[in-house]
Design goal:
- It contains three helices and five strands, in the order H-E-E-E-H-E-E-H.
- By secondary structure, it is α+β, with helices and mostly antiparallel strands.
- Strands 1-2-3-5-4 form a five-stranded antiparallel sheet.
- Strand 1 and strand 2 (27-31) form a beta hairpin.
- The structure holds adenosine monophosphate (AMP) and zinc ion.
- Residues 3, 6, 8-9, 48, 99 line the site of zinc ion.
Length: 136
């Protein structure tokens, strides 16, 4: 299903032009208009899903394989030194466009980008408590 008011549905299905670096029956990958680094790519399924939880398992499995292939191509062609794969779900997690997408971000030595978090310092008891909560 496509969603009428969704810009990534329109881009993925070719209704809005984009800088496409990959396309097949189910996906389109485009250059991000606000790149973290040269070649920052977004992999979009053509069918709408708000986030990873709505994505069919089959599409999710295909998406990671394609992201890997695109990542390899970006690194090889652009001479990148590393690669981040990032995928945000929900506003609190940094998702701004509510159509599932995977960020494929080539990284370059001295690119001065930061993609990360501030590490916490939980005690071993606290970690154990979280583990219990998850496994309960
Ligand atoms: P997220 O914060 O994970 O939802 O990522 C949304 C990304 O989409 C951001 O990196 C934006 O720069 C990018 N973006 C939003 N609109 C467009 C667009 N029309 N074309 C290309 N990239 C876009
Ligand atoms: Zn959509």
């Amino acid at each position: 299903m496509k969603k009428d008011d969704c810009i990534f549905c329109k881009i993925a299905n070719g209704e809005i032009p984009s800088n496409t670096v990959y396309e097949d029956d189910d996906f389109r990958a485009i250059l991000d208009m606000g790149p973290a680094a040269k070649g920052h790519t977004l992999l979009l399924p053509k069918q709408h899903a708000d986030n990873i939880f709505e994505l069919p398992d089959e599409t999710a499995a295909k998406a990671l394989v394609i992201a890997k292939q695109i990542g390899k191509k970006l690194v090889d062609k652009l001479g990148a030194d590393g690669l981040n794969i990032v995928q945000n779900n929900g506003e609190v997690a940094g998702q701004t466009v509510m159509h599932f997408h995977i960020h494929i971000i080539p990284r370059y030595n001295n690119d001065n980008q930061k993609i990360g978090w501030v590490p916490g310092k939980p005690s071993s008891e606290e970690l154990l408590e979280v583990c219990k909560q998850i496994n309960a």
